[in-house]
Amino acid sequence: MLSGLTVSIPMKTCEQPAAAALVTKLGVLYETVSICMLNDIYLQYIRVIQSTHQLRFHTDEGSMRPLTLSAMGWLLLTDRSDAEIEKLVRRANIATPRKEDRVPLEVVAAASADRGAGRGCLAG
Question: 0.85 exceeded by the pTM?
């Protein structure tokens, strides 16, 4: 079973056939497949093929959430500079209504510090 697999696809190919091809090629027939992008301080779900499991996290296409509240959002931070990460995380935390959902900058900074060595929480 594939878990936490991340595949990068150029945005011009982010159409329904591209997402369906991912499902077919990878054999991920029962798991959710999402194509996402960073939209300011939010993670936006561009294309979603829902899991067929009875218990699943349902995400609507086009929906957005603060990038600090999802693993995919953290993944999209990995190619950013430390200064960009700090700015995005601070802004995302301001936009996160519930204080207990805010992610301390130190937590994201610690994960991103290991990103170059492939040891961070985003490396799988």
Answer: no
